[in-house]
């Protein structure tokens, strides 16, 4: 898929996020919209996976550690063929496979359960460590998406130390660096800077990119794979609510879903593509 | 009745060994039988007896450092990749400190992550209340999918370790630090989810888990001298509970006393009381630690002070039965 096709797909995924949240009547808006480009790059370019055979043994593994951003994961999975796009309308409904936070036993293709913050990096590290026994030619990679607010959790830094110690070269982390969490700015709630320096001091290779630049995302992963001696974290600077003007940069949209009128306004600003990308 | 008890059980110099030693041997054997078994430890390798495994399989042993949250979540990731991870620390820290991670990443995902809580109960002795884990049975048995086992001695701990290595489910294994009397034998059966009749009696059922089963056997002998004919059950698996064996015994005796080296609230006795309350309402007396913390002392001083040695248990049980027979103590 070309960069422009990836960009069109990201718009389709944003449209799905807005629609599913509006139908659900609750959920998180800002994070999923901000991460749409990252998840599009992952599911349509970076990950080695087979949506028809989610437990394929040769697959790359993706963990969503900040599980409250489930809508972007579900949208990326649906658009890439794990399940019908129509099923996105069941988000958060009774009996749905699309639980409010991702649950491994509910939906094939989910590698783990998440929601309580801070435990995704450890699981990814555990998987990457196990791969040192299983995948001796380093053909598989383990990716984990973390929110920046979630880096307040001590479990993250336990895992960061661990991955540094064991030089887990198949572990590639993303930090969705949007500077917001529920109570406000990450730097007011609990300052994270110098974030690059923190990870570097734990033995990680650190890259910083514009998390809305498709080519930059793809190139960063290519670099991370080539490092070959250490885990890499890609600090992806994103705009919370990206693509929906009235949500952008506003932390009040962290944990809120749009109503019908807000959703209509949001969708009007996210034009359907004329090209090949699916629209929902 | 066929449970082969240690014939020297009532001797003053009954053989003793830390329950955790049986775990160490069981883990080594589990590692030999299945190469997907890995062991993770939080800086207590010798104390939790993972050292045997570490020496034999250094490439399958992972030192996580003093980080119990990371301990179990790394294990969950390894289980995703097909490993059978055993994690160990003191019970006070795992599952004491990392309960939510165990729930979300191991139990909810129904992964074969094994949580080994060593140094549980009062018998950590001099370390004091901070290190005496008394709440673990309660917090682990309320977790769906989780198997909870408190072996009675080191021989049984070895069998239990092998059993959980093979059962494919998340499991909590509760171990004791102190040299604990051995009441079972290598020929004794162990199956997850089974309770065992150790001594037949008509007057009362005594059901113990973990280290308390031995004390109940001692108590039963003391009671026999007082013409109280006590039946003794050993219930190493607190969850899933062997309802059938417990109910059958209480149908015969009409009353039950439970004992555990843990908080009474929410623990093994509570599980038995829940069962009887719903299926066979009969008098229940739960013995354990009664809503207080432990303190510093030798293990025997503490068991004595908390009324959990055979002699104390016998006195409490005799009182319970006398009260019931007098028709008052309900």
From TrEMBL, chain A:
SUPFAM superfamilies tied to this protein: Thiamin diphosphate-binding fold (THDP-binding) (SSF52518)
Domain Transketolase N-terminal, first and last residues per copy: 9-263
Cofactor: thiamine diphosphate
Superkingdom assignment: Bacteria
Keyword flag Phosphoprotein: no
Record keywords, A-Z: Thiamine pyrophosphate
Gene3D superfamilies per record: 3.40.50.970
InterPro entries, per database record: THDP-binding, Transketolase_N
Residue ranges the record marks as coiled coil: none
Family: Belongs to the transketolase family.
Protein name from the UniProt record: Transketolase
TrEMBL record, chain B:
Cofactor(s) this protein requires: thiamine diphosphate
Listed CDD domains: TPP_PYR_DXS_TK_like (cd07033)
Entry-linked PROSITE patterns: TRANSKETOLASE_2
Gene3D superfamilies in alphabetical order: 3.40.50.920, 3.40.50.970
Record key words, sorted: Thiamine pyrophosphate, Transferase
Domain (Transketolase-like pyrimidine-binding) ranges: 17-182
Keyword Transferase assigned: yes
Protein name per its UniProtKB record: Transketolase C-terminal domain-containing protein
Provenance organism: Microbacterium soli
């Amino acid at each position: 898929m070309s960069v422009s096709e990836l960009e069109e797909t990201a718009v389709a995924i944003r449209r799905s996020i807005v629609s599913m949240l509006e139908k659900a009547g609750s959920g998180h808006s800002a994070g999923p919209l901000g991460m749409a480009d990252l998840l599009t790059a992952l599911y349509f370019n970076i990950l080695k996976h087979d949506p028809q055979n989610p437990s394929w043994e040769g697959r790359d593994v993706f963990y969503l550690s900040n599980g409250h951003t489930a809508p972007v994961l579900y949208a990326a999975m649906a658009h890439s063929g794990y399940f019908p796009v129509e099923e996105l309308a069941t988000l958060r409904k009774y009996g749905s496979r699309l639980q409010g936070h991702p649950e491994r036993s509910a939906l094939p293709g989910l590698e783990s359960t998440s929601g309580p913050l801070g435990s995704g990096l450890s699981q990814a590290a555990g998987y990457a460590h196990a791969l040192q026994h299983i995948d001796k030619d380093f053909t598989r990679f383990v990716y984990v998406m973390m929110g920046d607010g979630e880096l307040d959790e001590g479990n993250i830094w336990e895992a960061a130390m661990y991955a540094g110690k064991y030089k887990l070269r198949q572990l590639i982390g993303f930090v969705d660096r949007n500077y917001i969490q529920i109570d406000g700015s990450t730097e007011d709630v609990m300052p994270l800077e110098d974030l690059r320096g923190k990870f570097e001091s734990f033995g990680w290779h650190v890259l910083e990119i514009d998390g809305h630049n498709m080519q930059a995302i793809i190139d960063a992963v290519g670099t991370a794979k080539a490092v070959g001696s250490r885990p890499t974290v890609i600090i992806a600077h994103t705009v919370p609510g990206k693509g929906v003007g009235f949500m952008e940069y506003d932390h009040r949209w962290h944990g809120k879903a749009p109503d019908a009128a807000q959703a209509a306004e949001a969708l009007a600003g996210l034009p359907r593509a004329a090209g090949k990308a699916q629209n929902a | 009745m066929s449970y082969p008890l240690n014939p020297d059980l009532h001797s003053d110099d009954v053989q003793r060994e830390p329950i955790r030693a049986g775990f160490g041997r069981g883990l080594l054997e589990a590692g030999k039988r299945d190469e997907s078994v890995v062991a993770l430890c939080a800086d207590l390798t010798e104390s939790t007896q993972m050292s045997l495994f570490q020496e034999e399989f250094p490439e399958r042993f992972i030192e996580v450092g003093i980080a119990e949250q990371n301990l179990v979540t790394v294990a969950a990731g390894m289980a995703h990749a097909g490993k059978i991870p055993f994690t160990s620390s003191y019970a006070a820290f795992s599952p004491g400190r990392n309960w939510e991670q165990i729930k979300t990443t191991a139990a909810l995902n129904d992964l074969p992550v094994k949580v080994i809580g060593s140094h549980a109960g009062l018998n950590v002795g001099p370390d004091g209340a901070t290190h005496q884990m008394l709440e673990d049975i309660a917090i682990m048995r309320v977790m769906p999918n989780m198997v909870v086992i408190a072996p009675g001695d080191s021989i049984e701990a070895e069998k239990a370790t092998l059993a959980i290595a093979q059962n494919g489910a998340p499991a909590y294994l509760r171990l004791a630090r102190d040299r604990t009397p051995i009441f079972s034998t290598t020929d004794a059966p162990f199956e997850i989810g089974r309770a065992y009749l150790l001594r037949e009696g008509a007057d009362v059922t005594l059901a113990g888990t973990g280290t308390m089963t031995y004390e109940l056997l001692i108590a039963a002998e003391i009671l026999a001298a007082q013409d109280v004919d006590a039946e003794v059950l050993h219930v190493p698996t607190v969850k899933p509970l062997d309802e059938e064996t417990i109910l059958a015994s209480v149908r015969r005796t009409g009353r039950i006393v439970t004992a555990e080296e843990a908080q009474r609230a929410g623990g093994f006795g509570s599980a038995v009381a829940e069962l009887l309350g719903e299926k066979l309402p009969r008098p229940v007396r739960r013995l354990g630690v009664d809503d207080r913390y432990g303190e510093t002392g030798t293990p025997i001083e503490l068991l004595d002070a908390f009324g959990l040695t055979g002699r104390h248990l016998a006195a409490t049980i005799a009182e319970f039965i006398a009260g019931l027979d007098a028709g008052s103590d309900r």
